[in-house]
Structures are given as C-alpha cells and as structure tokens.
Specification:
It is a single chain. It is built from five helices and no strands. The chain is mainly alpha-helical and 99 residues long. The longest helix has 21 residues, at 59-79. The chain is elongated and about 60 Å long. It binds zinc ion (ZN). Zinc ion binds next to helix 2 and helix 4.
C-alpha cells in the first residue's frame, strides 16, 4: 500500500479543488496530467494533497497511478546500477576513437 493512501482523513480544501472542474473526467484528466510531477515530488504540497485526495476516491486513476508508480520505481532502481570499470574503459575508448 502506498504512503499517500494513509493521508486522507483531512478533507478540507477538497471541495474547492473539485469545484474548479466541471466533471469527474476533468478531475481525472488533471490527475493524469500531473501523475509524473506528483511521483517526482515536483508539485507544491497543496497540489500534491489534491492529487492524493483524488486518487483516494477514483479507481480509474489509482490503477493508472499504481502502474506509473511501479515504472518510476523500476527506473529509479535501474539508475542505481553502476557500470563496471571494464565497461567504462571500453565506452570511453569508443567515444574517444570517434572524436
Ligand atoms: Zn480519476
């Protein structure tokens, strides 16, 4: 279970957020547009709270969010792998031979 699912007790502000959108689909589109920024911590705290609240109430978006969350974690794990010294030497040699 994700951390954000435990943070929905306080619903203040959500009605204001929902009022900005004319339909549930607008809310979904907004959440979808911001899912990457949300996962990368690039939203303001207020904006992130609004996304969290929407995800807690919308099955369509939470399913999409979970897929994106897994992809993001996978990419982050891949970035932690370091190339061996042998590979570095070979890549450096290839780069310098093409200059
Ligand atoms: Zn939604």
């Amino acid at each position: 279970m994700s951390d954000f699912e435990n943070e929905f007790d306080d619903a203040s502000g959500f009605d204001d957020y929902a009022a900005e959108f004319s339909s549930d689909l607008d809310l979904c589109a907004h959440a979808l547009r911001n899912v990457h920024a949300f996962l990368h911590g690039e939203l303001s705290e207020e904006e992130a709270d609004m996304i969290r609240r929407h995800l807690s109430a919308c099955e369509r978006c939470i399913d999409n969010f979970r897929v994106e969350e897994q992809i993001t974690k996978l990419i982050q794990r891949c970035c932690e792998v370091h190339a061996s010294d042998t590979l570095r030497v070979r890549v450096r040699a290839l780069i310098t031979s093409n200059i």
